[in-house]
Protein backbone atom coordinates (compact mmCIF):
# COMPACT_ATOMS: atom_id res chain seq x y z
CA UNK A 1 0.00 0.00 0.00
CA UNK A 2 2.83 2.33 0.79
CA UNK A 3 4.54 1.75 -2.47
CA UNK A 4 2.80 4.17 -4.83
CA UNK A 5 3.44 7.23 -2.77
CA UNK A 6 6.90 6.10 -1.86
CA UNK A 7 7.62 5.85 -5.55
CA UNK A 8 6.42 9.40 -6.02
CA UNK A 9 8.07 10.65 -2.89
CA UNK A 10 11.40 8.97 -3.38
CA UNK A 11 11.65 9.86 -7.03
CA UNK A 12 10.57 13.40 -6.22
CA UNK A 13 13.19 13.37 -3.53
CA UNK A 14 15.86 12.20 -5.92
CA UNK A 15 14.84 14.79 -8.45
CA UNK A 16 14.83 17.39 -5.68
CA UNK A 17 18.19 16.33 -4.36
CA UNK A 18 19.53 16.51 -7.88
CA UNK A 19 18.07 19.95 -8.31
CA UNK A 20 19.74 21.06 -5.15
CA UNK A 21 23.07 20.27 -6.72
CA UNK A 22 22.28 22.00 -9.99
CA UNK A 23 21.96 25.67 -10.40
CA UNK A 24 20.75 26.18 -13.91
CA UNK A 25 17.17 26.82 -14.85
CA UNK A 26 16.96 24.28 -17.67
CA UNK A 27 17.88 21.51 -15.37
CA UNK A 28 15.11 22.48 -13.00
CA UNK A 29 12.61 22.49 -15.89
CA UNK A 30 13.65 18.96 -16.75
CA UNK A 31 13.01 18.14 -13.13
CA UNK A 32 9.50 19.47 -13.28
CA UNK A 33 8.81 17.46 -16.40
CA UNK A 34 10.04 14.38 -14.62
CA UNK A 35 7.83 15.06 -11.63
CA UNK A 36 4.77 15.74 -13.76
CA UNK A 37 5.35 12.53 -15.63
CA UNK A 38 5.83 10.72 -12.43
CA UNK A 39 2.60 11.86 -10.84
CA UNK A 40 0.72 11.07 -14.05
CA UNK A 41 2.22 7.63 -13.99
CA UNK A 42 1.04 7.02 -10.49
CA UNK A 43 -2.44 6.22 -11.79
CA UNK A 44 -1.25 3.31 -13.84
CA UNK A 45 0.96 2.26 -10.99
CA UNK A 46 -2.12 1.53 -8.91
CA UNK A 47 -2.41 -1.63 -11.00
CA UNK A 48 1.23 -2.44 -10.51
CA UNK A 49 0.62 -1.81 -6.85
CA UNK A 50 -1.77 -4.76 -6.62
CA UNK A 51 1.04 -7.03 -7.70
CA UNK A 52 3.54 -5.19 -5.59
CA UNK A 53 1.41 -5.59 -2.52
CA UNK A 54 1.34 -9.33 -2.92
CA UNK A 55 5.11 -9.27 -3.24
CA UNK A 56 5.45 -7.12 -0.20
CA UNK A 57 3.23 -9.36 1.84
CA UNK A 58 5.46 -12.25 0.89
CA UNK A 59 8.52 -10.29 1.76
CA UNK A 60 8.52 -8.54 5.10
CA UNK A 61 12.15 -7.56 4.70
CA UNK A 62 11.24 -5.33 1.81
CA UNK A 63 8.78 -3.51 4.03
CA UNK A 64 11.59 -2.80 6.45
CA UNK A 65 13.68 -1.32 3.66
CA UNK A 66 10.80 0.89 2.62
CA UNK A 67 10.41 2.03 6.18
CA UNK A 68 14.07 2.95 6.30
CA UNK A 69 13.66 4.88 3.07
CA UNK A 70 10.75 6.78 4.54
CA UNK A 71 13.00 7.78 7.37
CA UNK A 72 15.40 9.27 4.88
CA UNK A 73 12.72 11.83 4.09
CA UNK A 74 14.37 14.16 6.57
CA UNK A 75 17.45 14.43 4.43
CA UNK A 76 15.36 14.85 1.31
CA UNK A 77 13.31 17.57 2.96
CA UNK A 78 16.46 19.48 3.80
CA UNK A 79 17.55 19.20 0.17
CA UNK A 80 14.22 20.62 -0.99
CA UNK A 81 14.22 23.44 1.53
CA UNK A 82 14.86 26.08 -1.15
CA UNK A 83 11.32 25.42 -2.43
CA UNK A 84 12.19 26.08 -6.09
CA UNK A 85 11.21 22.62 -7.30
CA UNK A 86 7.84 22.91 -5.62
CA UNK A 87 7.22 26.37 -7.06
CA UNK A 88 7.98 25.06 -10.53
CA UNK A 89 5.56 22.17 -10.19
CA UNK A 90 2.89 24.41 -8.72
CA UNK A 91 3.30 26.78 -11.66
CA UNK A 92 3.05 23.89 -14.11
CA UNK A 93 -0.11 22.61 -12.45
CA UNK A 94 -1.69 26.05 -12.23
CA UNK A 95 -2.16 25.97 -16.01
CA UNK A 96 -4.48 22.99 -15.65
CA UNK A 97 -8.05 23.61 -14.57
CA UNK A 98 -8.47 20.52 -12.44
CA UNK A 99 -5.94 18.13 -11.06
CA UNK A 100 -6.48 14.42 -10.81
CA UNK A 101 -6.39 12.91 -7.35
CA UNK A 102 -3.10 11.30 -8.23
CA UNK A 103 -1.58 14.61 -9.14
CA UNK A 104 -2.93 16.19 -5.99
CA UNK A 105 -1.23 13.47 -4.02
CA UNK A 106 1.98 14.02 -5.97
CA UNK A 107 1.79 17.73 -5.28
CA UNK A 108 1.01 17.02 -1.65
CA UNK A 109 3.98 14.69 -1.45
CA UNK A 110 6.30 17.34 -2.83
CA UNK A 111 4.87 19.95 -0.48
CA UNK A 112 5.35 17.49 2.35
CA UNK A 113 9.00 17.23 1.38
CA UNK A 114 9.49 20.93 0.85
CA UNK A 115 7.40 22.56 3.51
CA UNK A 116 6.91 19.84 6.08
CA UNK A 117 3.81 17.95 7.09
CA UNK A 118 2.41 20.78 9.18
CA UNK A 119 2.21 23.30 6.38
CA UNK A 120 -1.44 24.08 5.58
CA UNK A 121 -0.88 23.78 1.81
CA UNK A 122 0.46 20.23 2.26
CA UNK A 123 -2.61 19.17 4.15
CA UNK A 124 -4.78 20.99 1.61
CA UNK A 125 -3.31 19.08 -1.32
CA UNK A 126 -4.02 15.78 0.37
CA UNK A 127 -7.51 16.95 1.31
CA UNK A 128 -8.25 17.88 -2.29
CA UNK A 129 -7.03 14.46 -3.28
CA UNK A 130 -9.49 12.96 -0.83
CA UNK A 131 -12.31 15.00 -2.30
CA UNK A 132 -11.55 14.47 -5.98
CA UNK A 133 -10.60 10.82 -5.64
CA UNK A 134 -12.85 8.42 -7.47
CA UNK A 135 -13.59 5.99 -4.67
CA UNK A 136 -12.22 2.75 -5.91
CA UNK A 137 -8.84 1.83 -7.12
CA UNK A 138 -7.46 5.23 -6.26
CA UNK A 139 -8.09 4.86 -2.58
CA UNK A 140 -4.77 3.11 -2.36
CA UNK A 141 -3.06 6.26 -3.51
CA UNK A 142 -4.91 8.18 -0.83
CA UNK A 143 -4.01 5.67 1.83
CA UNK A 144 -0.41 5.93 0.71
CA UNK A 145 -0.61 9.70 1.17
CA UNK A 146 -1.83 9.19 4.69
CA UNK A 147 0.99 6.81 5.47
CA UNK A 148 3.50 9.32 4.12
CA UNK A 149 2.10 11.99 6.40
CA UNK A 150 2.18 9.53 9.26
CA UNK A 151 5.79 8.66 8.47
CA UNK A 152 6.59 12.36 8.67
CA UNK A 153 5.25 12.35 12.22
CA UNK A 154 1.94 13.98 11.45
CA UNK A 155 -1.25 12.68 12.99
CA UNK A 156 -3.47 12.39 9.98
CA UNK A 157 -7.07 11.85 9.10
CA UNK A 158 -7.81 8.33 8.07
CA UNK A 159 -10.23 6.83 5.59
CA UNK A 160 -11.95 3.66 6.77
CA UNK A 161 -10.52 1.55 3.99
CA UNK A 162 -6.96 2.34 5.03
CA UNK A 163 -7.69 1.09 8.51
CA UNK A 164 -7.04 -2.28 10.11
CA UNK A 165 -9.70 -5.07 9.96
CA UNK A 166 -10.89 -4.14 13.48
CA UNK A 167 -11.50 -0.57 12.44
CA UNK A 168 -13.05 -1.67 9.18
CA UNK A 169 -15.76 -3.46 11.15
CA UNK A 170 -16.46 -0.21 12.96
CA UNK A 171 -16.45 1.53 9.63
CA UNK A 172 -18.94 -0.84 8.03
CA UNK A 173 -21.90 0.89 9.67
CA UNK A 174 -21.01 4.25 8.20
CA UNK A 175 -20.54 2.70 4.78
CA UNK A 176 -24.05 1.20 4.91
CA UNK A 177 -25.62 4.51 5.77
CA UNK A 178 -24.13 6.93 3.32
CA UNK A 179 -22.03 4.97 0.85
CA UNK A 180 -18.26 5.25 0.55
CA UNK A 181 -18.19 8.93 -0.38
CA UNK A 182 -20.23 9.91 2.66
CA UNK A 183 -18.07 7.68 4.81
CA UNK A 184 -15.01 9.50 3.55
CA UNK A 185 -16.63 12.79 4.52
CA UNK A 186 -17.65 11.45 7.90
CA UNK A 187 -14.12 10.34 8.54
CA UNK A 188 -12.55 13.67 7.89
CA UNK A 189 -12.52 14.55 11.56
CA UNK A 190 -11.25 11.20 12.68
CA UNK A 191 -7.67 10.97 13.81
CA UNK A 192 -5.28 8.33 12.54
CA UNK A 193 -4.71 5.60 15.08
CA UNK A 194 -1.95 3.83 13.22
CA UNK A 195 0.22 6.82 12.51
CA UNK A 196 3.73 6.71 13.87
CA UNK A 197 3.21 7.45 17.52
CA UNK A 198 5.28 9.68 19.68
CA UNK A 199 4.71 11.33 22.98
CA UNK A 200 6.45 12.81 25.97
CA UNK A 201 6.54 9.80 28.29
CA UNK A 202 7.40 6.13 28.51
CA UNK A 203 7.82 3.89 25.48
CA UNK A 204 6.94 6.73 23.08
CA UNK A 205 8.92 9.37 24.98
CA UNK A 206 11.66 11.67 23.66
CA UNK A 207 14.50 9.16 24.21
CA UNK A 208 12.68 6.79 21.82
CA UNK A 209 11.90 9.30 19.06
CA UNK A 210 15.16 8.38 17.33
CA UNK A 211 13.85 4.84 16.68
CA UNK A 212 11.45 6.20 14.05
CA UNK A 213 12.98 9.62 13.39
CA UNK A 214 16.78 9.29 13.16
CA UNK A 215 17.50 13.04 13.24
CA UNK A 216 16.02 13.23 16.74
CA UNK A 217 18.83 10.98 18.01
CA UNK A 218 21.66 11.70 15.57
CA UNK A 219 21.24 15.42 14.92
CA UNK A 220 23.97 17.65 16.27
CA UNK A 221 21.96 20.90 16.33
CA UNK A 222 18.87 19.88 18.23
CA UNK A 223 16.47 22.03 20.22
CA UNK A 224 15.69 22.99 22.94
CA UNK A 225 18.82 24.23 24.72
CA UNK A 226 19.65 25.25 28.22
CA UNK A 227 20.51 28.89 27.57
CA UNK A 228 23.58 29.88 29.49
CA UNK A 229 26.62 32.10 28.86
CA UNK A 230 29.10 33.01 27.54
CA UNK A 231 27.06 34.73 24.84
CA UNK A 232 28.07 36.14 21.49
CA UNK A 233 26.92 39.60 20.58
CA UNK A 234 23.69 39.57 18.53
CA UNK A 235 24.35 41.05 15.08
CA UNK A 236 20.80 42.15 14.26
CA UNK A 237 17.34 42.66 15.71
CA UNK A 238 13.93 41.02 15.40
CA UNK A 239 10.68 42.94 14.96
CA UNK A 240 7.31 41.14 15.13
CA UNK A 241 4.54 42.68 13.01
CA UNK A 242 1.53 40.53 13.88
CA UNK A 243 -2.02 41.31 12.77
CA UNK A 244 -5.44 40.31 14.14
CA UNK A 245 -7.28 37.58 12.25
CA UNK A 246 -9.99 34.92 12.59
CA UNK A 247 -8.99 32.47 15.34
CA UNK A 248 -8.26 28.95 14.09
CA UNK A 249 -7.27 26.65 16.93
CA UNK A 250 -6.55 22.93 17.19
CA UNK A 251 -5.74 20.36 19.84
CA UNK A 252 -3.48 18.05 17.82
CA UNK A 253 -2.85 15.59 20.63
CA UNK A 254 0.58 17.09 21.38
CA UNK A 255 -0.26 20.74 22.04
CA UNK A 256 -2.75 23.55 21.53
CA UNK A 257 -1.88 25.24 18.25
CA UNK A 258 -3.24 28.36 16.59
CA UNK A 259 -2.98 28.41 12.80
CA UNK A 260 -2.45 31.98 11.68
CA UNK A 261 -3.99 33.50 8.53
CA UNK A 262 -1.48 35.19 6.15
CA UNK A 263 -0.31 38.72 6.92
CA UNK A 264 1.55 38.45 10.23
CA UNK A 265 5.32 38.75 9.93
CA UNK A 266 8.51 38.65 11.91
CA UNK A 267 11.34 40.77 10.51
CA UNK A 268 14.71 39.26 11.22
CA UNK A 269 17.54 41.59 10.26
CA UNK A 270 14.81 43.44 8.26
CA UNK A 271 13.96 40.30 6.26
CA UNK A 272 10.33 39.13 6.46
CA UNK A 273 9.34 35.71 7.80
CA UNK A 274 5.63 34.84 7.67
CA UNK A 275 4.01 33.68 10.93
CA UNK A 276 2.46 30.28 10.17
CA UNK A 277 1.31 29.05 13.59
CA UNK A 278 2.02 29.27 17.27
CA UNK A 279 1.70 26.65 19.99
CA UNK A 280 2.48 26.00 23.64
CA UNK A 281 4.70 23.81 25.78
CA UNK A 282 4.39 23.12 29.52
CA UNK A 283 6.83 23.64 31.11
CA UNK A 284 8.92 25.78 28.75
CA UNK A 285 11.25 23.64 26.64
CA UNK A 286 14.02 26.21 26.88
CA UNK A 287 15.77 26.64 30.17
CA UNK A 288 17.56 29.77 31.31
CA UNK A 289 20.54 28.82 33.47
CA UNK A 290 19.02 25.40 34.06
CA UNK A 291 15.52 26.63 34.92
CA UNK A 292 12.40 26.22 32.79
CA UNK A 293 9.57 28.78 32.88
CA UNK A 294 5.97 27.70 33.58
CA UNK A 295 5.21 27.55 29.84
CA UNK A 296 6.49 28.83 26.51
CA UNK A 297 4.76 29.91 23.34
CA UNK A 298 6.59 29.11 20.10
CA UNK A 299 5.77 31.37 17.15
CA UNK A 300 6.75 29.45 14.01
CA UNK A 301 7.72 31.49 10.92
CA UNK A 302 8.81 30.65 7.41
CA UNK A 303 10.40 32.80 4.73
CA UNK A 304 10.01 32.50 0.95
CA UNK A 305 13.02 30.23 0.76
CA UNK A 306 11.41 27.83 3.24
CA UNK A 307 13.72 28.72 6.13
CA UNK A 308 12.13 28.32 9.55
CA UNK A 309 12.49 30.71 12.48
CA UNK A 310 10.93 30.23 15.90
CA UNK A 311 10.30 33.09 18.29
CA UNK A 312 9.94 31.79 21.86
CA UNK A 313 8.15 33.76 24.55
CA UNK A 314 8.52 32.37 28.06
CA UNK A 315 5.42 32.53 30.26
CA UNK A 316 6.02 32.98 34.00
CA UNK A 317 3.45 32.57 36.75
CA UNK A 318 1.87 35.88 37.68
CA UNK A 319 -1.21 37.87 36.69
CA UNK A 320 -3.91 36.47 34.43
CA UNK A 321 -3.07 36.76 30.74
CA UNK A 322 -6.09 38.10 28.75
CA UNK A 323 -4.79 36.69 25.45
CA UNK A 324 -4.46 33.21 26.95
CA UNK A 325 -7.95 33.58 28.41
CA UNK A 326 -9.41 34.01 24.91
CA UNK A 327 -7.39 31.07 23.55
CA UNK A 328 -8.19 28.66 26.39
CA UNK A 329 -11.89 29.56 26.15
CA UNK A 330 -11.87 28.34 22.55
CA UNK A 331 -9.29 25.53 22.64
CA UNK A 332 -10.67 21.99 22.27
CA UNK A 333 -9.95 19.99 25.44
CA UNK A 334 -9.31 16.80 23.54
CA UNK A 335 -7.56 15.91 20.30
CA UNK A 336 -9.56 16.67 17.17
CA UNK A 337 -9.88 18.84 14.07
CA UNK A 338 -9.17 22.56 13.92
CA UNK A 339 -12.03 24.77 15.10
CA UNK A 340 -12.86 28.25 13.87
CA UNK A 341 -15.07 29.87 16.54
CA UNK A 342 -17.37 32.27 14.73
CA UNK A 343 -16.51 35.94 15.10
CA UNK A 344 -13.53 35.35 17.38
CA UNK A 345 -10.57 37.44 16.25
CA UNK A 346 -7.14 37.09 17.76
CA UNK A 347 -3.96 39.12 17.48
CA UNK A 348 -0.83 37.07 18.25
CA UNK A 349 0.83 40.34 19.33
CA UNK A 350 -1.29 40.06 22.51
CA UNK A 351 1.13 37.37 23.69
CA UNK A 352 4.30 39.42 23.18
CA UNK A 353 6.25 41.38 25.77
CA UNK A 354 7.19 45.02 25.08
CA UNK A 355 10.91 44.42 24.62
CA UNK A 356 12.36 42.19 21.94
CA UNK A 357 15.87 41.51 23.24
CA UNK A 358 16.64 37.87 22.65
CA UNK A 359 18.91 34.85 22.94
CA UNK A 360 19.46 33.15 19.60
CA UNK A 361 20.89 29.88 18.35
CA UNK A 362 20.68 27.41 15.46
CA UNK A 363 18.42 24.48 16.33
CA UNK A 364 15.71 22.09 15.18
CA UNK A 365 12.03 21.29 15.43
CA UNK A 366 11.47 20.13 19.02
CA UNK A 367 9.02 17.44 17.87
CA UNK A 368 9.55 14.54 15.45
CA UNK A 369 10.98 14.51 12.83
CA UNK A 370 13.32 16.98 14.64
CA UNK A 371 14.39 18.60 11.35
CA UNK A 372 17.37 20.93 11.75
CA UNK A 373 18.06 24.35 10.22
CA UNK A 374 15.61 26.21 12.45
CA UNK A 375 16.76 29.55 13.92
CA UNK A 376 15.55 30.16 17.47
CA UNK A 377 15.00 33.53 19.09
CA UNK A 378 14.06 33.32 22.76
CA UNK A 379 12.93 36.67 24.12
CA UNK A 380 14.59 37.75 27.36
CA UNK A 381 11.45 39.54 28.57
CA UNK A 382 8.86 37.10 29.92
CA UNK A 383 5.09 37.40 29.94
CA UNK A 384 2.70 36.62 32.80
CA UNK A 385 0.30 33.72 32.94
CA UNK A 386 -1.88 32.90 35.96
CA UNK A 387 -1.19 29.65 37.82
CA UNK A 388 -4.81 28.62 37.10
CA UNK A 389 -4.26 29.26 33.40
CA UNK A 390 -1.21 26.99 33.41
CA UNK A 391 -3.34 24.31 35.07
CA UNK A 392 -6.11 24.74 32.49
CA UNK A 393 -3.71 23.81 29.67
CA UNK A 394 -4.84 20.30 28.70
CA UNK A 395 -1.30 18.85 28.55
CA UNK A 396 0.43 18.25 31.90
CA UNK A 397 3.84 17.91 30.29
CA UNK A 398 4.67 18.42 26.61
CA UNK A 399 8.26 19.60 26.65
CA UNK A 400 11.23 17.89 25.05
CA UNK A 401 14.25 17.79 27.40
CA UNK A 402 17.16 20.15 26.68
CA UNK A 403 19.63 18.85 24.10
CA UNK A 404 23.46 18.90 23.94
CA UNK A 405 24.82 22.26 22.76
CA UNK A 406 27.62 20.59 20.74
CA UNK A 407 29.68 23.76 20.50
CA UNK A 408 26.89 25.90 19.10
CA UNK A 409 27.18 29.62 19.78
CA UNK A 410 24.34 31.35 21.58
CA UNK A 411 23.86 35.04 20.86
CA UNK A 412 22.48 37.11 23.67
ZN1 LIG B 1 7.32 24.24 20.06
List keywords for this structure.
412 residues, alpha+beta, 2 domains, 10-stranded mixed beta sheet, 3-stranded mixed beta sheet, 13 helices, globular
Strand content is: 15-25%
Question: How many β-strands, per DSSP?
Answer: 15
Mean pLDDT: 76
Heterogens:
zinc ion
* Total domain count: 2
- By helix and strand content, what is the structural category? alpha+beta
Radius of gyration, in angstroms, nearest whole number: 22 Å
Helix content: 40-55%
The low-pLDDT segments are 1-7, 10-28, 134-138, 164-194
Q: Shape from CA axes?
A: globular
- Ends distance: 49 Å
Put simply, the count of helices is: 13
N-to-C order of helices and strands: HHHHHHHHHHHEEEEEEEEEEEHEEEEH
Q: What does the largest sheet look like?
A: 10 strands, mixed
Quick rundown:
The chain contains 13 helices and 15 strands. It has 412 residues and is of the alpha+beta class.
Explain the overall architecture.
By secondary structure, this protein is an alpha+beta fold. The protein has 2 domains: 3-189, no CATH class; 221-392, Alpha carbonic anhydrase (Carbonic Anhydrase II, Roll). It has helices spanning 3-21, 25-58, 60-71, 73-79, 84-94, 101-115, 120-132, 139-151, 165-186, 209-212, 214-218, 322-330, 387-392, and strands at 226-227, 238-241, 245-246, 249-251, 256-259, 265-268, 271-281, 287-288, 291-292, 295-302, 308-317, 345-346, 358-364, 372-379, 383-385. Residues 1-7, 10-28, 134-138 and 164-194 have low confidence and may be disordered. Bound molecules: zinc ion. Zinc ion binds next to strand 7.
Amino acid sequence: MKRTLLEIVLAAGLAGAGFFGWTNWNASQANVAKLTELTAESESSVKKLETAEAEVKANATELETMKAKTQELDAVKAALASGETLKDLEAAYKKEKTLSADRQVGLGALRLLTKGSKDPSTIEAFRKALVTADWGSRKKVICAAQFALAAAGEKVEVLGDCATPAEKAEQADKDKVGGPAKAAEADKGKVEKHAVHWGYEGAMGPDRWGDEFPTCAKGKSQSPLNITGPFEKAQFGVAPDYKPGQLKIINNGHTIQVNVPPGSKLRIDSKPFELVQFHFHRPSEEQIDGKPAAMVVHFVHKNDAGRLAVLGVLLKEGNENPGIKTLWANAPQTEGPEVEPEGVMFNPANLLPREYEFYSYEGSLTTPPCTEGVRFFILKAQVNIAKEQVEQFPFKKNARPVQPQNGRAIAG
